[in-house]
Specification:
The chain is α/β, with parallel strands linked by helices. Helices cover 37% and strands 21% of the residues. It folds into 2 domains: 262 residues, 3-Layer(aba) Sandwich (Aldehyde Dehydrogenase, Chain A, domain 1), CATH 3.40.605.10; 184 residues, Aldehyde Dehydrogenase, Chain A, domain 2 (3-Layer(aba) Sandwich). The chain has 16 helices and 22 strands. Its EC number is 1.2.1.27.
């Protein structure tokens, strides 16, 4: 019965409101197909009301002191910590990832909230004194106005927390559009943000699909837009929002390679590859989806297959689960068809994870660890981002041959090298054309004092999320050149009280 299913609210001007839209979508538990909630696709009037509320709030929020903003985020990080288990449970139910992964999702967002609390040290201008006779030049980093964010299903806590805290801490107001597939944990985080003291209108939330995305791109009062999601949608958002005169940052698809040298620590490397390829069911833009085994490391393939085969598939909420379900039936069908295509195109299926038996969860969108060898650059398996627990294994004679394989791929989100050789590591980090490099670290997402720096086809826009780059993204540099004449030289009063009328 529909009326017993909770409906997700919009947040407009500090109030959680029931949408009047006629278009709704169900939020489904991917392990059971149980309907958890209904999410509205906001109407044009509702989106306009959210933006208008943010525009009105900006007038006062931009004048708020740094201390006030910093204390708000100190309070917010405390509330997130106190509610971590509850947030992880909501996230696991609607997204499918294991409880441990869900806690990690929240925690990586929490780190950015902590970083936002240090805004006093981040939003500093520069001063040059006496650049000419009596002339000083200095810069101010001023907020832009209303900013917007569009976030994906795979990290429904972390990625919203990459966006709105830094935008708000720098003095902007924000309109968030979370993924319509799993908005429940995002809304709980939004409730906590209001509890921490975010004033009405400073943070607003609208839900929806392609139509709402286009309206955010087009709206004249939105000054900057952040996006994380697929390459197809990201390219569209970048083009459309840029044409509308906005600042845009889009983090998009990936094909991340791990290069394994034979001198690497074998057990550690195999564990790292299994975790990075199959963790979160492969639904990460920083997942390792290609392993390039170099020289004698090619002999490790049977052990890599054996390691992958030990991982347990099940509901994310169940203890001992290593891989939860994929987000949707559509994702399950897509991953299944790419595996079939890989077999047809001649890749060797070393481990087939299709149709695993998960007792008690027969309706779940499950795929187990799947591993192909003999993969070549022309295959669909290699060209497409699978976004499932599928690892492609390639081989190379030398490190330089492996580097050439990685550099020939258009994507540039992340890459990793496993070795004990400092010389090899340094050569790799210098020659590789990928924005984020791990050395014996499979998923090199930087801590928030640095910025996320994916490159090439994985990113549109110059400045990445969080860290120093995002402070630049969310602020306008204003340069002031000022001159004061010495009152003695212009015959005016010196050391006297000047009365201002």
């Amino acid at each position: 019965m529909t009326h017993s299913i909770p409906s997700i609210k919009l947040l407009i001007d500090g109030q959680f409101v029931e949408s009047t839209t006629s278009q709704w979508r169900e939020v489904v538990d991917p392990a059971t197909q149980q309907v958890l909630a209904r999410v509205p696709f906001a109407s044009e009037a509702e989106l306009n009301a959210a933006v208008a509320s943010a525009a009105a709030a900006f007038k006062t929020w931009r004048k708020t002191s740094i201390g006030t903003r910093a204390r708000l985020f100190l309070k917010y990080q405390q509330l997130i910590r106190e509610n971590l288990k509850e947030l992880a449970a909501i996230l696991s139910a609607e997204q499918g990832k294991t409880l441990a992964d869900a806690e990690g999702d929240v925690f990586r967002g929490l780190e950015v909230v902590e970083h936002a609390a240090g805004i006093g040290n981040l939003q500093l201008g520069e001063l040059a004194n006496n650049v000419a006779g009596g002339v000083d030049t200095y810069t101010l980093l001023q907020p832009l106005g209303v900013c917007a964010g569009i976030t994906p299903f795979n990290f429904p806590a972390m990625i919203p927390l990459w966006m709105f805290p830094m935008a708000i801490a720098t003095g902007n107001t924000f309109v968030l559009k979370p993924s319509e597939q799993d908005p429940m944990v995002t809304m709980r985080l939004v409730e906590l943000a209001l509890e921490a003291g975010v004033p009405p209108g400073v943070l607003n939330v609208v839900h929806g699909g392609a139509e709402v995305v286009d309206r955010l791109c087009d709206h004249p009062d939105i000054k900057a837009l952040s996006f994380v999601g697929s390459s197809r949608v990201g390219a569209h958002v970048y083009q459309r929002a840029s044409q509308a005169g906005k600042r845009v940052q889009c983090m998009m698809g990936a094909k991340n390679h791990a290069v394994v040298l034979p001198d690497a620590h074998k057990e550690q490397t195999l564990n790292s590859l299994a975790g990075a390829a199959f963790g979160a069911a492969g639904q990460r833009c920083m997942a390792i989806s290609v392993a390039v085994l170099v020289g004698a490391a090619r002999d490790w393939l049977p052990e890599l297959v054996a390691k992958a085969a030990t991982l347990k598939v099940g509901a994310g909420s169940k203890p001992g689960t290593d891989l939860g379900p994929l987000i949707s039936r559509a994702a399950l069908d897509r991953v299944g068809s790419l595996i079939e295509q890989g077999v047809r195109e001649g890749a060797r299926l070393e481990l087939d994870g299709r149709n695993p038996v998960v007792a008690g969860y027969e309706q779940g969108n499950f795929v187990g660890p799947t591993l192909f060898s003999g993969v070549t650059p022309g295959m669909s398996l290699y060209r497409e981002e699978i976004f499932g627990p599928v690892l492609c294994v390639m081989q190379a004679e030398t490190l330089d041959e492996a580097i050439a394989i990685v550099n020939a791929n258009p994507h540039g989100n992340g890459t990793a090298l496993f070795t004990r050789s400092g010389a090899a590591a340094r050569h790799f980090q210098e020659e590789i054309e990928v924005g984020q490099v791990g050395i014996n670290v499979p998923i090199p997402v930087p801590v928030p004092i640095f910025s996320f720096t994916g490159s090439r086809a994985s990113k549109l826009g110059d400045l990445g999320p969080y860290g120093k780059q995002v402070v630049q993204f969310y602020t306008q540099t204003k340069t002031v050149t000022q001159r004061w004449f010495d009152e003695n030289e212009v015959g005016g009063p010196v050391n006297t009280t000047i009365t201002l009328k």
